[in-house]
Design brief:
Order of helices and strands: HHHHH
Distance between the termini: 26 Å
Shape: globular
Number of strands: 0
Length: 98
Amino acid sequence: MFHAAKAVLFSMGLREKKHFAVTLVLEILSKEGKLEARFVNEFAGTQHDREEADYHYNHNKVASENALSSAQDFVKRMKEMLASNKWGNVATSWLSDS
């Protein structure tokens, strides 16, 4: 999911190295109506689940299955965004004004 989102950011002319930056841009795209809020929530949720598994050894089969399903939907949506390129430079402009 991280790399799919990074591809969208890269196509917008943005580069980042942390999940936080990706989440921020996804939130902006959602607020602009260019990305459904559920994808932002799923990105943040699966990030949390991955950190729990990686750093706190909390593994859960149901959460893993849900994360896989979310990831498949998320990657599909990012591919659609890349193909349509409808987000323009609004997010890029907003970030550069900060």
